[in-house]
Amino acid sequence: KEKQDKDAKLRSRMDRISKKLVVMSGKGGVGKSTVAANMAVGLSLQGYRVGLLDLDVHGPSIPRLLSLTGEKPHMDKDFMEPVPWSRNLWVMSLGFLLPSNQDAVIWRGPVKMGLIRQFLQDVAWGELDYLVVDCPPGTGDEPMTVLQLLGEGTGAVIVTTPQAVAVDDVRRSVSFCRDMDTPVAGIVENMSGYVCHSCNEHLDIFTSGGGESLAREMNVPFLGRIPIDPEIVRSGDEGYIYVKTHPQSPAALIISSMLESV
Ligand code: ADP
Predict the structure, then answer these.
(1) Do 166 and 158 form a contact (C-beta atoms < 8 A)?
(2) For the segment 91-110, what is each residue's pLDDT rounded down to a tens digit?
(3) Which of 81, 104, 130, 180 is the 20 to 30 Å CA partner of 12?
(4) Residue 33 is assigned to a ligand binding site
(5) Is 50 annotated as a binding residue?
């Protein structure tokens, strides 16, 4: 009975969200959180009502990316209020619940899965056009729980870097989504080349194009190549959002065009 009540609560929360975008990656460090944060802000700048949910139990980085470290969301007996970032973007992160951002997250598997479930069930988003989810990396139990619980209306955005090793991870991620019946909204190749600011020439620092050819091979959409931009690193470190502060930069233009296809 209690389980049924919880399932009903989860479904009624999720039913009020038109579209869920799960940002996934084969491994950490490819720019998954950066892409998730910029997509969420990009959608909010287009006027949509957007939620950004950070479920990366290994290292929640969304609070820092959005200058929201130290925020404590309001908690009630059976719901939590997300933290407002603007009048139409709300944020919730496991990082808000940790005592300090220095603390390594050493919860055991079942605890992590319980937290993911509790977040999806208890965060009171209200009506949203989009929920952007920063998913734990890989294809293990945690991302599996995320996809299962989000249910219908979910699309996966898979972030990769261009090197061949990363591309093998994407292949696994695409198969994983297929096994979970989650449609792949597309693959993003991040840190794909460098656009010289003085001459506008595109330099491929790593090999590139791996994500694009894999997308073709696996018959999923390719959303674009986001170049390396030192300003993205700075924005992440300092907590401002790149698509908002550098809307005309090559990387921001790619992120905006991605939003048209998801
Ligand atoms: P993940 O969530 O996959 O672990 P992050 O989003 O935390 O990765 O990004 C890892 C690091 O790479 C951060 O310092 C971030 O600022 C940087 N980064 C991400 N994308 C780019 C890019 N296109 N150009 C330059 N730096 C980037």
Answers:
(1) no
(2) 999 889 877 655 556 677 88
(3) 180
(4) yes
(5) no
